[in-house]
Specification:
alpha+beta, tt1808, chain A, two-stranded antiparallel ribbon, 6 helices, globular, disordered N terminus
Length: 195
């Protein structure tokens, strides 16, 4: 599905929320950052495989370290007024997790993960990256085609490119989470190649 028929220079969060409310399905995914509307179709299976693997690794680690909770899309995030994003995965700290039991939108995140698809790459590396860098300590862009992760932190002008190992250390009191990227991307291999 392409952009909605009504072309605008600037979208509001309320307009995007209406698009979502009027749509009978969870897709396409609508997001707005700095007035720009992003419309993303349903993800393909390789995307979902990697989201699932990262969710499992993050969930185990976040629970063991008592760092809050891991969530996945569709889920509403409002990091700034007039923004509305739905990252593939995100971690909220314990106090935000408690607040979310009574609220509908997360506003404080410890980590954001986006797995690139052809329709999301421009937004994930552009306006959404800038938003996340303003409001989230760490942002991972997982590039399935290049088999790498771009790590962005607040203030970075260039990403750290990770090809072998991805570590996340949310605080000095916690051991790092380590994700071996070769193993992660091996999940995308053709099952016939393993025979």
């Amino acid at each position: 599905m392409g952009m909605p028929a009504a072309k605008r220079d600037r979208w509001t969060r309320a307009e995007v929320e209406r698009l979502i409310a009027d749509g009978p399905l969870q897709t396409p995914r609508y997001e707005v950052v700095d007035g720009e509307l992003f419309v993303t179709p349903s993800p393909l299976p390789p995307h979902q495989v990697i989201v699932g693997e990262l969710y499992a690794a993050l969930r185990e680690y976040v629970r063991a370290q008592k760092l809050g909770r891991v969530y996945f899309s569709p889920s509403d995030i409002e990091l700034e007024p007039e923004t509305y994003v739905q990252p593939d995965l995100y971690v909220v700290p314990p106090e935000e997790d408690r607040r979310l039991r009574l609220a509908t939108k997360a506003t404080m995140l410890s980590l954001v993960v986006e797995v690139l698809s052809p329709d999301s790459a421009r937004g994930d590396r552009g306006r959404k990256r800038l938003l996340y860098q303003r409001r989230v300590p760490e942002y991972w862009i997982v590039d399935l085609d290049a088999r790498l992760v771009e790590r962005w932190r607040t203030g970075d002008t260039r990403p750290e490119i990770l090809r072998d190992e991805l570590t996340w250390t949310p605080g000095a009191a916690h051991p790092p989470l380590v994700v071996h990227l070769e193993q992660l991307f091996a999940e995308l291999a053709d099952p016939d190649d393993e025979a």
